[in-house]
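Reply to dn_fold:

You asked what the input looked like. This is it:
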Amino acid sequence: MSVEALLLGCVLFLLLTIGLGLIRVVRGPSPADRMLSAQLFGTSGVAIFLLLAELRDDPTLRHIALVYALLAAVAVITFVRRGSDENQAPDPDPEERK
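and this is what came back:
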């Protein structure tokens, strides 16, 4: 078995995991499950780009993988901040404090 065939097999496996993650995004049941599946897309996408960069010996795909990783991190931070804002109790009116 050649290295190219092994790397291509890994790419196909990662595409399969993305397909299964898509089912979890659609079905849920909670927003956290959906976010974890979206994070799976980011992680698998980065891995796919890095494997393809190795197969094609293309440094541009490595740069794309880096940008994709940064976007996935921003998505998680946004989800966490949005969730923490919803869990906080609303501040009482300033007029009630007087």
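Residues 3-84 form one domain.
Hope that clears it up.
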